[in-house]
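User: Hi! I have a protein structure encoded as tokens and I'd like to know what sequence might fold into it. I'm fairly new to this, so please keep things simple.
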């Protein structure tokens, strides 16, 4: 069968230098660019036909990945349309395409595999500083005016080890507000500059991106900001502060002028799910403002003022699954839902998951957690470094290892990938692992949640209610040949289920 590995063997990786050199020309030659996208779509359709002959693959999962592959091609078409700065275009090709899609730092990856008989995590998420210039309601990080942060030497060492020990070429920065981080006179952009072989994605509130910051991002080339918005102006300003929405739009305008790609980060709650997935909202950010990608996070009841009442209901979550795939299918927009799109990642990726696509989260105090949304840490990187250890010692921690074992068992046990999350979809399993390993809560709110019987009961009731809805869809839309399209179009509600309707239905 003709696969991506075959493509690599016949010289695609070796030709990356030529691609980089001709990229500026390609970006200005419309017919050539569109022909490349057309050829890519043909390859995806051809590859899908071959994959479908493999009876070990799930039909609906193959369909999802095929469809999202076409989205990536259309995003590449946007990238080569001529608006990005030359440095950004070069870094995207060298770091993302050559480094990630074509194998990354192979010596480091191979060395890790020889030692552990599995592949290293694909990336890291680091929150180097808790400081934030905003004070958002329900912030998962409880960020605010605090001095807690990783020292520059520790922050820099983490990035270096991720590259040299794991072959990481992609790294996520969160916070607090990343642009508010300072240590030893250095900030986030200094870290980006020091590590040109890594492409960074930074979640940001956008209010600190002025003209000078935008121009420096364009010159560096290896950083893309994802702006956090809650919906339209009223809803964003209610949570983040008056005037924040307009500041985000102004920052997007600066980045467009400078040629820096950016995206949006959306937190879905039971109050804004329909708003952030409306045609008008998608048009505004992707068509008018030029966002290249979007990430959807579901509100998780952790952090400041946590409450179960803001989580999208099980019915809303099913509706979101359908609606996002409609947007992807109809408009080829890169819009990824971390809970509803687990078919693209083989399920949960927490705990530094094996097979190369997992991650770990390191916060400003050095606490290492399996996931941003699992605020329980069995180990602190500062203490590991003080003992002469490395990231490999952290990856081998028994708590993380047990999470990876759970993931593999769920996958091999033909688990429902529409319910992948060990925190929200399998909360009892997570509590069993926490009781076994006793990781330290990352903050006082996490400790309260762990000790609250109503919290545990509410999470487990949510799990059951969602499983009742999602299990039949998983069976019909993913396990049956050609079931995915029929299942979406015939068995799902055509309209949004509001919270009031949900309450009425469950009385």
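Assistant: Happy to help. Inverse folding works backwards from shape to sequence: for each of the 507 positions I chose a residue that suits the local structure. Here it is:
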């Amino acid at each position: 069968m003709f696969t991506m590995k075959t493509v690599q063997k016949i010289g695609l990786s070796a030709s990356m230098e030529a691609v980089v050199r001709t990229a500026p020309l390609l970006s200005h030659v419309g017919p050539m660019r569109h022909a490349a996208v057309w050829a890519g779509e043909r390859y995806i359709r051809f590859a899908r036909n071959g994959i479908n002959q493999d009876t070990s693959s799930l039909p609906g999962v193959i369909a999802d990945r095929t469809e999202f592959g076409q989205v990536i091609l259309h995003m590449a078409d946007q990238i080569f349309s001529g608006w990005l700065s030359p440095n950004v275009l070069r870094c995207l090709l060298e770091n993302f395409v050559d480094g990630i899609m074509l194998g990354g730092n192979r010596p480091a990856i191979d060395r890790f595999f020889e030692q552990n008989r599995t592949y290293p995590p694909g990336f890291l998420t680091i929150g180097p500083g808790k400081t934030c210039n905003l004070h958002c309601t329900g912030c998962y990080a409880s960020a605010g005016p605090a001095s807690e942060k990783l020292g520059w030497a520790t922050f820099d060492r983490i990035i270096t080890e991720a590259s040299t020990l794991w072959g990481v070429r992609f790294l996520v920065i969160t916070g607090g507000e990343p642009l508010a981080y300072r240590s030893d006179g250095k900030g986030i952009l200094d870290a980006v500059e020091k590590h040109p072989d890594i492409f960074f994605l930074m979640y940001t509130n956008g209010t600190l991106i002025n003209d000078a910051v935008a121009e420096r991002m364009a010159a560096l080339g290896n950083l893309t900001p994802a702006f956090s918005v809650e919906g339209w102006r009223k809803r964003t300003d209610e949570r983040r502060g008056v005037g924040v929405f307009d500041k985000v739009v102004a920052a997007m305008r600066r980045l467009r002028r400078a040629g820096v790609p950016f995206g949006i980060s959306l937190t879905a709650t039971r109050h804004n799910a329909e708003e952030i997935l409306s045609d008008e909202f998608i048009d505004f950010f992707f068509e008018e403002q030029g966002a290249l990608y979007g990430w959807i996070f579901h509100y998780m009841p952790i952090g400041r003022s946590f409450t179960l009442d803001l989580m999208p209901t099980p019915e809303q979550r099913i509706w979101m699954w359908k609606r996002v795939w409609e947007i992807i299918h109809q408009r080829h927009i890169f819009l990824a839902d971390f809970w509803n799109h687990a078919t693209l990642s083989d399920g949960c990726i927490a705990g530094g998951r094996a097979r190369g696509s997992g991650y770990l989260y390191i916060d400003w105090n050095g606490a290492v957690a399996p996931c941003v949304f699992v605020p329980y840490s069995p180990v602190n990187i500062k203490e590991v470094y003080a003992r002469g250890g490395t990231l490999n010692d952290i990856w081998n921690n028994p708590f993380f290892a047990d999470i990876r074992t759970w993931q593999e068992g769920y996958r091999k046990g033909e688990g429902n990938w529409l319910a992948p999350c060990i925190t929200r979809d399998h909360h009892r399993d997570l509590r069993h692992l926490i009781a076994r390993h006793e990781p330290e809560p990352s903050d006082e709110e996490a400790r309260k949640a762990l000790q609250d019987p109503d919290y545990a009961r509410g999470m487990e009731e949510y799990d059951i209610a969602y499983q009742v809805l999602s299990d039949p869809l998983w069976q019909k839309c993913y396990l049956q040949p050609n079931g995915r399209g029929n299942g979406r179009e015939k068995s799902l509600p055509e309209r949004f289920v509001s919270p009031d309707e949900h309450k009425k239905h469950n009385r």
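A useful reference point when you look it over: The radius of gyration is 22 Å. Feel free to ask if any position seems puzzling.
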